[in-house]
Design a protein that fits this description.
Strand content of chain B: 15-25%
Order of helices and strands of chain B: EHHEEHEE
Shape of chain A: globular
CATH architecture of chain B: 2-Layer Sandwich
CATH architecture of chain A: 2-Layer Sandwich
CATH topology of chain B: Heat Shock Protein 90
Largest interface: A-B, 25 and 31 residues
Number of strands of chain B: 5
Distance between the termini of chain B: 37 Å
CATH class of chain B: Alpha Beta
Strand order of the largest sheet of chain B: 1-2-3-5-4
Radius of gyration of chain A: 12 Å
Structural class of chain B: alpha+beta
Largest sheet of chain B: 5 strands, antiparallel
Number of helices of chain A: 4
Order of helices and strands of chain A: EEHEEHEHEH
Number of domains of chain A: 1
Number of strands of chain A: 6
Largest sheet of chain A: 6 strands, mixed
CATH superfamily of chain B: Histidine kinase-like ATPase, C-terminal domain
Strand content of chain A: 25-35%
Distance between the termini of chain A: 27 Å
Number of domains of chain B: 1
Oligomer: heterodimer
CATH superfamily of chain A: STAS domain
CATH topology of chain A: Transcription Regulator spoIIAA
Shape of chain B: globular
Structural class of chain A: alpha/beta
Radius of gyration of chain B: 16 Å
CATH class of chain A: Alpha Beta
Number of helices of chain B: 3
Chain lengths: 110, 170
């Protein structure tokens, strides 16, 4: 898994490439914590190249959501592929996160 | 109380002689340390078996997810990450189905008492989704009476929930 973090205007884009499995979730947690500790509260997670997410990694996203939300911000999900969309629906986390078809849509009105 | 595993379907309960290659009954048995990084290598071997038999990507995703969740649960919640405890794993992959058994050395739990992570008041909880995901993505899931062991089966003939078969291979 590769995690890339970049700034776009007032938003922080976190892109996850590959599998966010249990072996990768510590690195994912570090990336999100670093972003939040640096003051990021408006976060878009680009899932267009993410092929797998375990519950541990979902927990990282939820923790980031809680931190950002607590500071008046958000964590939005962009472009999850078919299996991840199904996973979000199965867990009903698509009711917690706003899910957008791509990063550009997620940045609108941000 | 969940039913105890029927003996005739149990397969190897305690892999006293872990095998890298399947035994006569087709089971591969491993004993894993309680270390999350140990999961990936076993997972790689299971998925390689599925790929060799031409299972589709949706089935591979489902098995991978359930496999990982079962082992995370065994290590984190069962063995409480105690490095002196082990996790026993057995799996059997045939052209028709994938069977996985995971046993920990913890105190056990009652799967039916795990709070439903999909209800609104639990959506913000960062953990507690493993059991639900295993049940959602596998066709048969049976916990032992004390909850320290789970047996799960995915049938090739059954579509993965929500996925129209893409036909792509993993």
């Amino acid at each position: 898994m590769k995690v890339q973090v970049r700034q776009e205007g007032s938003c922080t884009i976190v892109s996850i490439q590959g599998s966010a499995d249990v072996g990768a979730s510590p690195a994912l947690r570090d990336a999100f914590l670093r972003a939040v500790d640096a003051g990021a509260t408006r976060i878009v997670c680009d899932l267009s190249k993410t092929d797998f997410i375990c519950s541990d990694a979902l927990g990282v996203l939820i923790t980031a959501y809680l931190k950002a939300h607590g500071r008046g911000g958000f964590v939005r999900l962009a472009n999850p592929q078919k299996r991840l969309r199904e996973l979000l629906a199965t867990t009903r986390l698509d009711h917690l996160f706003d899910v957008f078809p791509d990063v550009a849509c997620a940045l609108k009105d941000a | 109380m969940p039913p105890s595993l029927p003996k005739e379907r149990r397969g190897p309960s305690v892999p006293s002689h872990p095998t890298e290659t399947p035994n006569a009954a087709g089971w591969t048995e491993e004993v894993l340390p309680t270390r999350l990084t140990a999961i990936r290598e076993s997972e790689r071997k299971v998925l390689a078996r599925l790929a060799a038999l031409g299972y589709g990507e949706d089935h591979c995703f489902a098995v991978r997810l359930a496999f990982e969740e079962a082992l995370i649960n065994a290590m984190k919640h069962g063995n409480r990450m105690d490095p002196s405890r082990q996790v026993r794993l057995a799996y059997r992959v045939s052209p028709e189905r994938v069977e996985i058994r995971v046993a920990d050395e913890g105190a056990g739990f009652r799967p039916d008492c795990v709070p439903d992570p999909t209800v609104d008041e639990n959506l913000q909880r960062p953990c507690g989704r493993g059991v639900m995901l295993i049940r959602s993505y596998m066709d048969e899931v049976i916990y032992s009476a004390n909850g320290t062991e789970v047996r799960m089966v995915k049938y090739r003939a059954n579509p993965v929930r929500g996925f129209p078969e893409s036909g792509r291979r993993c």
